[in-house]
């Protein structure tokens, strides 16, 4: 009985060995077949080029150049550079360049009645850190409340730490140019980031018209948002 048991076991081992060898041959044949199909796909592409997919660059981390990146220009003359930091650890350098009034200060400025003018101010925005920081616009534009048309005066808001005679109208900010060969902003997930050390010329302009007699010297730039100033005192940027 024990002999029959060993003989039966030997037959099972021989069958298993044969099955293993057949499985190995089948696997190799399948691999060769897959490679042949892949080769056929490469050859049969309409443009005749090998499709190697879309490579991901080392260190890219999902970042891409933001659409509509501005061109470069030499750094303008500016006032003193002031530094500001956020609770998230982002750091910015700001320096005022110039202010004025214009009928169309931004590409996004809406057409208004003839003779209407908007207030604007330009400043340099710099990422003063060695890593990308969120693209943000810390500076806000203020004008004398007396120089705001009566129809828009209730839209001109005073802010903590800013002289009571000044107020800020609804406004927009836009990057006009990259300075000194700075890299353009990059998209990272849902955010737009400023590369390390990059500087941009930014323009902030009112969405609503101001009085035609507003003097450029009466237009001011302040940083007042609590994200950038912890003592709730507006910090003015001096023009050159």
Please describe what this structure looks like:
This protein has two domains: 1-53; 63-237, Immunoglobulin-like, CATH 2.60.40. 18% of the residues lie in helices and 30% in strands. The chain has one helix at 2-43; strands at 63-65, 72-73, 82-85, 91-102, 118-127, 133-134, 140-144, 166-167, 171-179, 186-188, 191-194, 199-206, 220-223, 235-237. The strands form three sheets. It has a six-stranded mixed beta sheet, with no helix packed on it. It has a four-stranded antiparallel beta sheet with strand order 1-10-11-6, with no helix packed on it. A four-stranded antiparallel beta sheet has the order 8-7-13-14, with no helix packed on it. The model is unreliable at 1-63 (pLDDT under 50).
Radius of gyration: 33 Å
Number of strands: 14
Number of domains: 2
Specify the number of helices: 1
The CATH topology of the largest domain: Immunoglobulin-like
Termini gap: 108 Å
Main beta sheet: 6 strands, mixed
Low-confidence stretches: 1-63
Biggest sheet: strands side by side, in what order? 2-9-12-5-4-3
What is the string of SSEs from the N terminus onward?
HEEEEEEEEEEEEEE
Q: What coarse outline follows from CA principal-axis ratios?
A: globular
Overall CATH architecture of the largest domain? Sandwich
Structural class: alpha+beta
Quaternary assembly? single chain
Strand composition percent: 25-35%
Percent helix range: 10-25%
Give the mean pLDDT.
Answer: 79
CATH class of the largest domain: Mainly Beta
């Amino acid at each position: 009985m024990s002999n029959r048991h060993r003989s039966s076991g030997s037959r099972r081992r021989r069958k298993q060995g044969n099955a293993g060898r057949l499985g190995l041959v089948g696997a190799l044949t399948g691999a060769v077949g897959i490679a042949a199909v892949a080769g056929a796909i490469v050859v049969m592409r309409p443009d005749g080029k090998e499709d190697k997919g879309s490579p991901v660059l080392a260190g890219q981390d999902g970042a891409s150049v933001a659409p509509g990146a501005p061109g470069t220009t030499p750094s303008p003359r500016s006032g003193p550079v002031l530094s500001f930091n956020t609770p998230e650890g982002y750091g910015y350098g700001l320096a005022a360049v110039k202010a004025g009034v214009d009928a169309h200060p931004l590409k996004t400025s809406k057409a208004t009645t003839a003779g209407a003018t908007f207030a604007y101010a330009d400043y340099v925005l710099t990422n003063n850190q060695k890593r990308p920081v969120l693209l943000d616009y810390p500076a806000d534009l203020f004008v004398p409340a007396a120089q705001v048309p009566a129809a828009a005066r209730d839209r001109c808001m005073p802010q903590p730490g800013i002289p009571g005679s000044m107020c800020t109208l609804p406004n927009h900010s836009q990057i006009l140019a990259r300075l000194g060969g700075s890299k353009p902003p990059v998209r990272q997930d849902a955010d737009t980031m400023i590369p390390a050390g990059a500087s941009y010329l930014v323009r902030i302009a009112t969405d609503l018209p101001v009085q035609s007699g507003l003097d450029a010297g009466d237009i001011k730039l302040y940083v007042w948002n609590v994200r950038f100033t912890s003592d709730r005192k507006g910090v003015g940027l001096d023009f050159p």
